[in-house]
Amino acid sequence: MKLTEKEFNWIVSYMRNRYGIELGHKRVLIEGRLENHLLKNGYASYSEFIKEIVDSPDGTQAMDMVNILTTNHTFFMREFMHFEYMNRYVLPWIRQTKAATKDVRIWSAAASTGEEPYTIAMVLRDYFGMEPGWDTQLLATDISMEVLKKASAGIYLEEQIQNLPERWKRQYFKRIDAERFKVSNELRKQIVFKNFNLMDNITFKGKFQVVFLRNVMIYFEDETKKFLLRNIYDHMENGGYLFIGTTESIDKVKSGFRYVQPSIYRKV
């Protein structure tokens, strides 16, 4: 099935305008991922698929395209130095500054299939333990409903959790068959999974002390990054920490964030 230049440009514009994702140099990725879906579902052309999206922008096919074209590769313990830094520096700061309200507000902004927010939740439980009163529920969002369903279910193959500490595996995972484990109910209840487009206005209640925005901005153009970082900056508490991917960087002057160390920034 051939993807014409017109069809390619429409898909690129749609993903850029609606989600801020730049796929202008990803023609091979678009063809490789969409062609199987179109053939499997009986489409004769990309244009036929596009027409359904135009006719029903919030319909099933629109969401299918987002699910297919967004990269959701993640794993437990990814860039674990961030969690170590959080445990050593960020959580003590939160404990000190929030002693009165005991309100911990952390956002995993590109949660994918849940490995990141579940790791954050385990770090929070390790740190705060059984201390009474601390609200450690965290927000986990993604534009893909497909990956959020997987994250909410909390079911992982044994090989996916093999790098976790044995203590965490015993405490937070239960074997359900020969190959799969399920996250404990207590850990799942600690996370609110929500569908959210990072190009939309942030309307979540309160401001965050920590935001994980890792390995997302590599798909955004400079102006989109600038908009997103300013939006996040405005919805963080003073002194709050921003974690981005280790291969990413941000403009400290334009964003307002202060550089702490590679891939870690702070609102001043």
E-strand count: 10
Question: How much helix is in the residues?
Answer: 40-55%
Rounded Rg: 20 Å
| Low confidence ranges | none
The largest sheet has its strands arranged as 6-2-1-7-8-10-9
Q: Hey, roughly how much beta strand do the residues contain?
A: 15-25%
Order of helices and strands: HHHHHEHEHEHEEHEEHEHEE
Secondary-structure class: alpha/beta
Shape: globular
Q: Indicate the mean pLDDT.
A: 91
N-to-C span: 52 Å
The largest β sheet comes out as: 7 strands, mixed
Number of helical segments? 11
Structural key phrases:
globular, alpha/beta, three-stranded antiparallel sheet, seven-stranded mixed sheet, single chain, 268 residues, 10 strands
What does this structure look like?
The protein is an alpha/beta fold and 268 residues long. It is 44% helix and 18% strand. The protein is built from eleven helices and ten strands. It has helices spanning 5-19, 27-40, 46-55, 60-69, 81-97, 115-128, 145-153, 166-172, 185-188, 222-234, 252-255; strands spanning 106-108, 138-142, 155-157, 173-175, 180-183, 191-195, 208-213, 236-244, 257-261, 264-267. A seven-stranded mixed β-sheet has the order 6-2-1-7-8-10-9. Strands 3-5-4 form a three-stranded antiparallel β-sheet. Strand 9 and strand 10 form a beta hairpin. Helix 5 crosses helix 6 (115-128). The longest helix has 17 residues, at 81-97. It starts with a helix and ends with a strand.
